[in-house]
Structures are given as C-alpha cells and as structure tokens.
Amino acid sequence: MMDGAYFTGRKEILEWINQTCALGITKIEQTCTGAIACQLLDAHFPGNVQMSKLNWEARSDYEVKLRRARDGRSSYPRGPL
Predict the structure, then answer these.
(1) Whole-angstrom Cα distance, residue 55 to residue 46?
(2) What does the H/E/C string look like for the chain?
(3) Quick one: pLDDT at residue 1?
(4) The domain containing residue 56 runs over which residues?
(5) Residues whose CB falls within 8 Å of the CB of residue 31, separated by 6 or more in sequence, listed in order
C-alpha cells in the first residue's frame, strides 16, 4: 500500500513552499526554473548553495538554475533529507 504522502495535493505543496521560503507563489508551474529547489536546499543546508551565483533571470528549461547548485552538491550531508 502506498503512503499518503504520495497523494499530497498541489495546494498543500504550495502552502509548504510558501511557508518554508516566505514566498507567495500561486501556481506549481512557477517552480519549474529551479529557483524554489535552490531556496529549499539552502533552507535545509545553509551555506551549501551559493545563492549569489544563481541565474535569477532564467525563464526557460534550458537555463536551469540548478546547474550552479550542483557545484556544491558533494558537500551536502549524506542520508535522507
């Protein structure tokens, strides 16, 4: 049987992202550039993502912000988040 976490709705996910990152996003599609992923990583592992090096103006899939975040990936703690 699958865990209930697999059935979390968009509204709940958006509320969690908005609370965690102090944002006001209204659509899940606004997370597609990777900015939210970088902010969540920085919230959970402070200092491991060089936020100043991210391309905050990226608007398309091929300008993925995570490209810069991967540089520090090896310093993340091992194990579950």
Answers:
(1) 19
(2) CCCHHHHCCHHHHHHHHHHHHCCCCCCHHHHCCCHHHHHHHHHHCCCCCCHHHCCCCCCCHHHCCHHHHHHHHHHCCCCCC
(3) 67
(4) 33-72
(5) 17, 25, 37
Distance of CA 18 to the CA centre of its chain: 11
pTM beyond 0.90: no
Distant-in-sequence, close-in-space partners of 67: CB < 8 Å, separation ≥ 6:
55
Across the 81 residues of the chain, what is the mean pLDDT of every consecutive 10-residue run? Answer: 80 93 90 82 85 73 54 48 39
Task: Indicate whether 49 belongs to any domain.
Answer: yes
On whether residue 28 sits in a domain, the answer given is no
Phi-psi domain of 74 (left: phi exceeds 0; alpha: psi -120 through 50; beta: other):
alpha
* Angle, vertex CA 53, rays to CA 19 and CA 45, nearest 5: 45
